[in-house]
């Protein structure tokens, strides 16, 4: 794990993953270089999160890592998803990761994602 990197709550980091950027909350990250592979489904289920909140986090994940939205557009879409504490936490983390002096966000796997920009 690189110094100054932030790891969001309820994230899971795979063994031997090289973490050189911020890891958003609720994500499963693995590989070298590290990539967001999916949501941390096991951790989210064990957390006792409401099913409705879990569904919103899944939608947020798809917006960020499986859509063609630009990062700023994906953030706007996240605003439209709802106002749960979990979504607020995710949005706040994403915004803070873009501040000067921060290293940015770990990208997703495969095709280009909004985080890659």
Automatic annotation (TrEMBL):
A GO-annotated cellular component: membrane
Gene Ontology molecular function, alphabetical: acyl-[acyl-carrier-protein]-UDP-N-acetylglucosamine O-acyltransferase activity; structural constituent of carboxysome shell
Example of a GO biological process term: lipid A biosynthetic process
Keyword terms, alphabetized: Acyltransferase, Lipid A biosynthesis, Lipid biosynthesis, Lipid metabolism, Transferase
Gene3D superfamilies tied to this protein: Hexapeptide repeat proteins, Udp N-acetylglucosamine O-acyltransferase, C-terminal domain
Species of the source: Aphanizomenon flos-aquae WA102
Pfam families, sorted: Acetyltransf_11
InterPro entries the UniProt entry points to: Acetyltransf_C, Acetyltransf_C_sf, Lipid_A_LpxA, Trimer_LpxA-like_sf
Record domain UDP N-acetylglucosamine O-acyltransferase C-terminal: where: 22-105
Protein's UniProt name: UDP-N-acetylglucosamine acyltransferase
């Amino acid at each position: 794990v690189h110094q100054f990197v932030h790891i969001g709550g309820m994230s899971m980091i795979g063994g031997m993953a090289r973490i050189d950027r911020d890891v958003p909350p609720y994500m499963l990250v693995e590989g070298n270089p590290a990539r967001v592979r999916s949501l941390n489904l096991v951790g989210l289920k064990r957390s006792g999160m409401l099913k409705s909140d879990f569904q919103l986090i899944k939608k947020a994940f798809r917006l960020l890592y499986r859509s063609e939205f630009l990062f700023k557009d994906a953030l706007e879409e996240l605003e439209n998803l709802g106002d749960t504490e979990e979504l607020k936490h995710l949005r706040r983390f994403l915004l803070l990761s873009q501040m000067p002096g921060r290293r940015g966000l770990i990208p997703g796997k495969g095709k280009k994602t909004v985080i890659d920009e």
